[in-house]
Amino acid sequence: MIDQIAIGLCGVTAVFLSQDKRESVRRFACLFGMVSQPFWFWTTWHAKQYGIFALCILYAFSWVRGFYVHWIKREAA
C-alpha cells in the first residue's frame, strides 16, 4: 500500500513539475522522480512484471540524467 501511495504522489509530482515554465521549478522534477524509483522497482519485481521493471531502469537513468543536468553540472558552471 505504501509503495502505491509513494508512486502516485512522487511520480505525479515529478511529471507535473517537469512541465512547469520556470526552470527553477522544473529542476525539482528529477528529485521526485528518483524518490519514486525504488517503489517502482519493488512493485514491478514483486509482481513479476519484468518488462516494466526494465522500463523502470530506463526511467531511473533519465531521472539521474536530469539530476546531473540540473544540479551537478549547473553547480559546477
How would you describe what is shown here?
The chain has 77 residues and is mainly alpha-helical. The protein has one domain (2-76). It is 86% helix and 0% strand. The protein has helices at 2-18, 23-26, 29-46, 50-76. α1 (2-18) packs antiparallel against α3 (29-46) and α3 (29-46) runs antiparallel to α4. The chain is globular.
Which terms would index this structure?
77 residues, 4 helices, 86% helix, mainly alpha
What topology does this entry show?
Blueprint: H1 2-18, H2 23-26, H3 29-46, H4 50-76
What's the β-strand tally?
Answer: 0
Strand content: under 5%
**What is the arithmetic mean of pLDDT?**
94
Structural class: mainly alpha
The parts where pLDDT drops under 50 for at least 5 residues are none
Outline type: globular
Order of helices and strands: HHHH
Chain oligomer state: single chain
Distinct helical segment count: 4
Q: Please give the domain count.
A: 1
From the N-terminal CA to the C-terminal CA, the straight-line distance is 42 Å
CA radius of gyration is: 13 Å
Largest sheet properties: none
Instruction: Summarize the amount of helix as a percent range.
Output: over 70%
